[in-house]
Amino acid sequence: MDGFSAMTRWQKTITTPLYIGCLALAFSLNAAASPDLGAGDLDALFSELPSHANHAALVEQLGSVNSADIQQSGIGQRVALVQSGYNQHASVQQLGDNHSARVSQQGEDNLLFLIQSGSLNQLVLQQSGFANSANVHQDGSANTATIQQQGNQNSVVLQQYGNHHAASITQYGDQLSVSVRQSQ
Q1: How far apart (Å, rounded) are the C-alpha atoms in residues 22 and 24?
Q2: How far apart are CA 132 and CA 128, in angstroms?
Q3: Which parts of the chain have pLDDT scores under 50?
Q4: C-beta neighbour count of 60 within 10 angstroms
Q5: HSE on the CB side for 169, CA within 13 Å?
Q6: Residue 30 DSSP class
Q7: What is d(CA 144, CA 160) in angstroms, rounded to the nearest whole number?
């Protein structure tokens, strides 16, 4: 795989937490693939969580070329994702009821694509510096989104379809842009 760390994780039992520290994961996988790559050089997480209840995906990625692709379906799905430096990208898809996602991206080419389909959706996002962007689609009955971006190429596209929409978007500096659509 050209030194690119990847993982697919299925959770099949009820209330099984998933914790992956991609810094340690990337080190062990990259060390086997190439002795020249260090911890956090090329991090990736691909997680598919099948239809069950109460899954939690807790993901922490620290350095370099980060990427996370998380898919959950069922009832009571939770995602907590922390990406730190360089080329972070995150794709989160939650299908079902009563899910939430908390995503924190820090510096460089930040990007988040999130789909929550079901009821009682929530999102808290914080992005910090350089090419920030967020594309959030929530479809359900009690949608909530809180997005905060700090600096540089900021952009948000938020679509909420359902009943109890709420949105709080805060952008601080540079190229700022917001697009919010709420409808029944």
Answers
A1: 5
A2: 7
A3: 1-41
A4: 20
A5: 18
A6: H
A7: 8
